[in-house]
From TrEMBL:
Molecular function per GO: ATP binding; hydrolase activity; RNA helicase activity; RNA strand annealing activity
EC number annotated for this UniProt entry: 3.6.4.13
Annotated signal sequence range: none
Full protein name: DEAD-box ATP-dependent RNA helicase CshA
Name of the gene this protein is made from: cshA
Domain Helicase ATP-binding: 35-205
Organism: Clostridium cylindrosporum DSM 605
Amino acid sequence: MENTNFNELGLSEEIIKAIEAMNYTVPSKIQEKAIPVIMDGYDIIGRAQTGTGKTLAFAAPILSGIERDKGKIKALVLAPTRELALQVNEEVKKISSFSKIKSFPVYGGDSIDKQIREIKRGVDFVVGTPGRVLDLMRRKVINLENLQYLVLDEADEMLNMGFIDDIEEVMVSASPERQTLLFSATMPNAIRELSKKYMKADSVSVQVESKSKTATTVKQYYYEVRRDLKFEALCRVLDATEMQSAIIFCKTKKGVDELVESMQQRDYSVEGMHGDMTQAHRTNTLRKFKEGSLKILVATDVAARGIDVENLSHVVNYDLPQDTESYIHRIGRTGRAGNEGVALSIINSREFRRIRDIERETKGKIEKAIVPTVEQIFATKSKTMLETVKTQLATEEYKRFIPIIESLSEETSPIEIAAALMNSIYQREVSFNYAEDFKEESRDRRRDDRGRDSRDSRDSRDRGSREYSRGRGRDRDKGFVRLFVSVGKKDNVNASALLRFFADRANITKRDIGAIDIFEKFTFINTSENAKDKILNTCQGKKLDSRTVRIEVANSK
Ligand code: AMP
């Protein structure tokens, strides 16, 4: 089929002019299908997700079909979040730039008085969240008697967020003459019910293929790890990957908060985004993310829908979404505009079936990937660090450090100095936990040793028995308590096994554990004060493999 033009869809001249000014030349699929139907006066049920151009698909025909009438509200769009309402309003403003229509966004979390004043001054087109719209209706500021168009945007999300009663109240109050346009990424039963109840019997359904069903530009991978190693796996994947901008998805708000906290503890540049955060915080976070000063955002599906960031380099499913539609929705945020995108899912073995289901339903391939090893992370990072050094060498600025380095070069070779600098940058760049072992055979001492060697060779040189030291330098063990543990080398334990034993049972983070010195018959472990009590309460007398573990607070060193 030949491409249709915007001027073949029946839109008014001033709208076509605005679309030209926006530099859109070809209508998207949903626009091609929906615009003529709306222009013909039918109600529409559009199944399309964000990124398909659905905003213009409803806004352009509405703006072609309304005229100013002494501030009577002619069009109302209901959207699930403030961000989406603002986004839609921006698009409406652009499309109406050559007409006299005035649009205005209303949403909770912002002064209602200001919104009331603005609407009273005369607004033709309102875009708002259901709660605030209803509030303004009850205050008789918004009157829907003359409404020509009612749009439910992302109807499934509005229902998920519990707006059903509010939406029904709006639908009942709006002029029965109006045209109703419902857009939703998924079509659960509740939406079908809603459309049956409040939309015309001859309403037309249009659907566009989910983007990723045809998109080949998103490479999809999954990592299968034990549930308790999920966070560690995420850190390794992040450390080994060059991410320009990534959204990590969690199922719940609590999940977002917890993940952000754990990641921030490991010095990742990351912020969370969900409905409980203040509007100011969300706006600020979004600004940083768009500017690129914040590389990673952790969000729930609902919060992410309001984020109009094109071209993410990566989408990470820390929790798999509830349904395949949502998966498609999430990964559709990467690989846009012909760029290559990557979608990563971190799952446990029980979730593997879901991966297969998603593959079947999307007719796509999600490839198995292995959590990067310490060596792989080292190799990847060294390469990018070397590139940074090359870029530096092309400037003049680094030269101010030459006299400082010269003062060192009498006792140390320039190569050693450069390597030491690289090492200090490397330690800042990576945050994964060396003690964690992702292979089945978790007691592989040689691998543990290699890992530690590349991190800090001092440890192995000056203390043959020191197995593990978290953090950057030993200073972080300050204030830690030293525990005596009654198992040692002869019991065949290593740092990784010990760490897992304590972390699993005492529910502490690896950050709570400092240096681990393993001797022939016993071990000393430094732990935070807080973790000490948990360890004593939960691990005392428990078995590590077949050995009963006895723990005591040791005399401080
Ligand atoms: P939406 O699905 O409405 O969120 O739109 C996704 C993005 O596509 C927005 O940034 C729109 O500005 C853009 N867009 C909408 N229609 C077109 C079009 N016909 N050609 C190119 N870009 C478009």
